[in-house]
Amino acid sequence: MKMTLFILAVVISIQPCMAQLKVTPVCPAFVVDILEGTVNEKLFTYSSIAEVQNKFPCFTSTTQETNGNTCGGVFYKDKDIYFFTERDYIEVGPNFKGAISLPIMGASRGSLFKWLGNPKIKDVTWDAYQTKYGILILYFNKANKINKIQLSNKGVESIKLCE
């Protein structure tokens, strides 16, 4: 009886030693270049899901691309940056955890001319600027401060945004 209890105790104590260790993916810091339309100089608005996942493996979710009717991409909710690869744009939210080449997040609407010139299209809650890579859309809160940034290689006539 003692031998049976001893063997049972040994088997139970060995079980935790056989657990698999899982590595948490670590991402480099996100650096968004507003004038170039890139993230970390290697990801573009038209980068594929695989390219984004390889550069930043710590994504929180993905949605597969279909034929242009969905919002496929790679999403980093904890960092507040989203790569909509199916529709070729990158979105940066107000709680973005990273660096932006120009200090525009939270900047007032009237302070943007020195960096971006005049917007191509103005609306009550957003402005769209023509860039060398396509279009930059800046969204404003009620205090007229920037609270969302979208970079796309599309033009204002052809861009399709996700809700």
Shape: elongated
- What name does CATH use for the topology? Pathogenesis-related Protein p14a
Compute the gyration radius: what is it? 23 Å
Largest sheet: 8 strands, antiparallel
Which structural class should the secondary elements be placed in? alpha+beta
- How many discrete structural domains? 1
How far apart the termini lie comes to 67 Å
CATH class: Alpha Beta
* Mean pLDDT score: 88
| Percent helix range | 10-25%
Q: CATH architecture, please?
A: 3-Layer(aba) Sandwich
Number of strands: 12
**SSE string, helices as H and strands as E:** HEEEHEEEEEHEEEE
Q: Could you give the order of strands across the largest sheet?
A: 4-5-6-7-12-11-10-9
Number of helices: 3
**Which homologous superfamily in CATH is the superfamily?**
CAP
